[in-house]
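Cont'd.
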Amino acid sequence: MPDNPYVPIPVRVQNVRIESDDRTLRTFDLAFGDDSEPFEYLPGQFCQLSILGKGEAAFGIASSPTERESLRFTVNRVGTVTTALHYLKEGEELGLRGPLGNHYPVEKFKGQNVVLVGGGFAFTTLRSLAAYLLANRSDYGDITVIYGARRPGLLLYRNELAEWEKRGDVKVHLTIDEPAAGWDKAVGFVPALAEKVRPSPKDAWAVVCGPPVMIKYTMPVLLDLGFAQDRIYTSLERRMKCGVGKCGRCNIGPKYVCTDGPVFSYAELASLPEGF
Amino acid sequence: MKAGKSQTPSPKSQAEQLRETARMLLKEEKADLVVGYERGSSKRRARPVVIRDEKDVDRLIFDNTCGPSLVPFLRKTLRAAKGRDSKSQTPNPKAETSLRVAVVAKGCDGRALVQQVAEGQLKRDQVVIVGVGCNGMRDSRRASSDEKRDASCERCRYPNPPVYDVFVGEPVEVGTGDEFAGVAEFEKLASADRWAWFERELAKCIRCYACRNACPMCYCEECFVDQTKPLWLGKSAERPDTTLFHLVRALHTAGRCVDCGACERACPLGVRLGLLNKRLEQEVRERFGYTAGLSMEATPALATYSEEDKQEFIL
Amino acid sequence: MSSSLRIAKPDLDQLVSALTSRYQLFGPVDVDGVTVLREVKSADELALGAALDGPVKAAFFPQTETLLTYDGTTSEAPPGRDKPTAVIGVRPCDARSLLLLDKVFGTGKYRDPLWQRRHDDSLVIGLGCSAPLETCFCNSMGSGPFDAEGSDIMLTDIGDAFVAESCTDKGERFLKTAYKSQVQRPSQADLDKAGQARSKALAALAPAADYSGVKTALAKLWESALWDEIALGCLSCGACAYLCPTCHCFDVQDETAPGTQQGRRVRIWDTCQASLFTKEASGHNPRPGSKERMRQRVMHKFSYFVDNFGETACVGCGRCIRLCPADFDVRQVLERVKAEGRRTKDEERGTKKDVRHAG
């Protein structure tokens, strides 16, 4: 990170592909410019992607720090900046500021079981976490992934999910909202699937990422299963600008999502009245 | 009054009559709430107050410190009462139809209310207009005495609201003279001098939007300054964008502005662009024969067209 | 080692020249009856008598500041500065605000280099407040009309002259450099006048209010209807935030010169009262109404800032009261908060009592 936290470093689009069947999501693999130092980061952190002339937007890093060739981001097209990002082609340049924010407490997870619960396109940092855990497999106990989307075409990283399903050292449970042709796995919302899977809270940590409504209904499931509030983590979002705790925009109570977060434990959130 | 002695009761002040009227409206359930003014942070200032209970009626005042337009506060009160201001509120559909809010209306505010009805922003039967005659507002920040009034008050020709449900006190005599005299004086200046004056005023602006938010006619849910598709102007306080903001706001309020002066009064740093609004008011009156805030039935000038409209700028 | 000098008012230019030769100097200037902070080159531009309407933070955290310039896909940080910044005629409330802003910009995981390049090596020449306004409540916020906190040099107006006292080593060094020779020391009469000015000012202020219980009270009032009520009296403009010496929220915008690929990324003052402040691209807004935004403002200044930096983000300057178009009074809000907090506490206590009796 250069001395001036507001100046982005140049990165190049190494690879871009359409991620969702409705083309609203694109996944980018970004390579550092020749003069830039690749940086170290941990799952859960985010970057501000910068398009000079349009602005910036915050994205969770989807690659694992063990995947050193590039940084991966999945972008949902909703506004000016994300539209400009979607227009980028391979080889084109953009800017990046990061790694920003805190990370999932992977040190605490060591030797323990980890349950990843994701919904929709919020799965990005969970991909980072899963890939990281799998790359350091012997450091962790059971790894369980519970992930759902509205329909199959909206699940992120479908090829990788299929590969994980084939591995013997990670349990993958997928679900979609309504039955679809060719889908032979679970049907129903993510909280329902979590209830069915019944991950054990013993020596386990849970990480939940998804739209607010999914988190709202998943938390009680985990708490009922016996997960303690300080063993459940989530990643929050707020409108951001500076990303470094100065512009005052992204606070939830006294915590800034960009520096004190975006990763928070459920116990921490319970003490913050502003919540979701 | 002692029995047997015939005494003329001392005439009640306008403020006392106002309180009595408010008390009556609440008591007789002719209004659910009363929006008025109360004494503010000093004796030179007044602030809006929402009275829900007869016991609070004594907080109401009306004097030459009551400058701000109550209309933006009335709108907020109505929204809140309908449960539409915040996610923590429950929408109250009954309030949509049955709520009645009384509002203290000096001349300009009364005109603003009429214009709001004409523009479909307010339902006539939701407001109980409590008219008061106004002798002008003292310049609250810069004047040390009562002598100096706000610029819009000096040229005011509508001290009494044109439409009201009840009138408190005596009507105020309408001023004479040309309300556009200040505009005429300004237009005598050479073009470069006029622009220099505007530049000097615009240099003071910090884009806080106090003027816009205090204005009874600036009620757009999304103001043009906040639109991004397209992006009409930048958000910084630098000259080109600031100039554009004020010019466009003046155009958006042309033919709607009632010259209440709330904008100039609201500005924390003394930007004085009211003359620009006055000039546009004059233009609309001359071209279309329309004056804002006088009739709830008349179609606002810029909301319609007539084949008689002058088109010398095209043809 | 602190020294004091007597600077006759006609000789103020000597101080100003000494400042402008080393610093980019800002001071209060009258613009059509409103006093704002502007860059000054000579003493006769200064309007030291009236209270500053615009905030002093503008000299260190300008309303519009370039973060970087760009040309196509390359960008550059703004260049360094020739001279450090000095401000003269800073009332104690504003001087203190710079310390609070420094906690935000100058500390933490990231340091703000734009703030640092203006604030580092800066010099603050404070001016004691001889005539506090009705809206001043610095004494309720841990400061006072002649408080030296945040000033390197403090000027006291004694009528035909100023008594200048150094408050920090930096201030001392500057006075020694600026007044190598011809140093005039204040006489005992001068010092007595200065003392009288201070006492008079303190007496003119309303007695300090006790806001020590505000943070605790706020913790109980998240769901309170108090916020709905208070929010009705606010127009949600940016006057208070922009004029507030401790408000630091900003927006970031890219501005490209039309028809080119060149432009700049600027930061500009923003306000948490703006409806778009927290509105997300999806359309979701965690603070959709003026109630939530008003609660945020009060909580940030009187609770969250205390959690994060140990101090209230308010210096009692009163601009938010006297310059608010709706005459919103934060002092009244704090009193209401205290009262509501007490009421909630009494109710809780009452409940406990009942349980005991039932037992």
